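Handout, section B. The chain below has 239 residues.
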Amino acid sequence: DSCAWPLIELGALADARPLQAAWQHWPQWQAVMFVSAQAVRHFFAHRPPGVVDGDALRYWVTGPGTQRALTALGVSLDRIEAPDPASAQFDSEALWQRVSARVRTDAPVLIVRGADAVEGASPSGDAQGQGRDWLGQQLRARGVPLQWLAAYERRCPLWSEAQRRDAQAAAHDGSVWLWSSSQALQHLQRLLPATDWSAARAIATHARIGEAATALGFGQVRCVRPVLEDVLASLESFA
């Protein structure tokens, strides 16, 4: 049996003007990097009619889910830069191996991400916030102009008492938790601050997420690539 629990609530930004401005300056970007499929969907929701890609514009993604979100909105695969499907991980480091030799210093890169409701920061500009900080460091080291843009807002959800009880039971009843976000783990800690996770088991889709699960106190943590076959194999190994 499987159960999906909401641990990141997504919402639209109160001020959409920075998103609209990014579309108005569309031809200036050499690449637009999307940190997630949600970043794609919220950003493209503000696309005005008649926008045409420049000949050099590339779309950067770190995983197949974000790539599918782009193609579903009409972006052709030959415009998308993504890690090799056989990569050990789908992350910024793997993407950088694909694009680093071709980045230029004469045009900016836009990184589209989410903003945390608790940050209280501007949704645009150079504030890095959450989302591919490492990639931004590599671009700045090369002298590439860089802009960060929030396309949506992330919040900690409100759980019912029944959800809290079920989650606390899953901390020690043999359930396996599948994690694809470090922020989801942070929200879990906020929702259940006094829970003992030492008997809990987890699968994480990236080493950094696994480190966050271990820091929270999960007793067993295994890291896998975020592909169905690898996740299933890890679940079977727990059995």
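Note. The CA atoms of residues 191 and 208 lie 21 Å apart. Compare this with the example in section A.
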